[in-house]
Amino acid sequence: MPPRKLNGRQQKLLKKTNYKTGNKDDRKRVKINACQYGLLFKNGVYKKLLTEGKYWIFGYKNVLVYDITRPFAAPVELSILLQDEAFANVLQVIEVRDGTQSQL
C-alpha cells in the first residue's frame, strides 16, 4: 500500500514529536485488523510480525501494515523477513518457472 498523505493536524503533531528524548510523546497506537498483518521495524531493522490486535509503539519503531488480500511487496530483502518463523508461516512463496519468486 502506498503511504497516505498527512493532513494538516497530523503534520503539526509530527513536527512537535521529539524522537530523541524518548518521552511519552513518542508513542503511537497501531491497530491491526483481522485481514491485516504488521511488520515492526526498529531503526529500519525488521523485528517481528504483528497479528490482529492493538499495539503501542514507542520511540524509533515503525509499523508497516499490509492487507492479506493483496500481493505482498517486501519493504526489505525477502530472505531477511523469512528468517522470522512467524512470518515464514504466514507468507506463501511460490517459485515460478523463470526462477523468480512471487509472494501471496
Kindly describe this structure.
The chain has 104 residues and is α+β, with helices and mostly antiparallel strands. It has one domain. Helix content is 19%, strand content 35%. It has helices at residues 8-16, 78-82, 85-90, and strands at 28-32, 36-42, 45-50, 53-57, 61-67, 93-95, 101-103. The longest helix is centred in the first third of the chain and has 9 residues, at 8-16. Mean pLDDT is 78; it is low at 17-22.
Element layout with pairings:
Layout: H1 8-16, E1 28-32, E2 36-42, E3 45-50, E4 53-57, E5 61-67, H2 78-82, H3 85-90, E6 93-95, E7 101-103
Antiparallel strand pairs: 1-4, 2-3, 2-5, 6-7
Summarize the structure.
The protein is an alpha+beta fold and 104 residues long. Helix content is 19%, strand content 35%. It contains three helices and seven strands.
Order of helices and strands: HEEEEEHHEE
Q: What is the number of strand segments?
A: 7
What portion of the residues fall into strands of 2 or more residues?
A: 25-35%
Structural class determined from secondary elements: alpha+beta
Unreliable segments of 5+ consecutive residues = 17-22
Q: Largest sheet, if any?
A: 3 strands, antiparallel
Average pLDDT works out at: 78
CA distance, first residue to last residue = 15 Å
Whole-angstrom Rg: 16 Å
Continuous helix count: 3
Our count of domains comes out at: 1
The shape, in one word, is: globular
- Helix fraction by DSSP (H/I, runs of at least 4): 10-25%
Oligomer: single chain
Instruction: Output the strand order for the largest sheet.
Output: 3-2-5
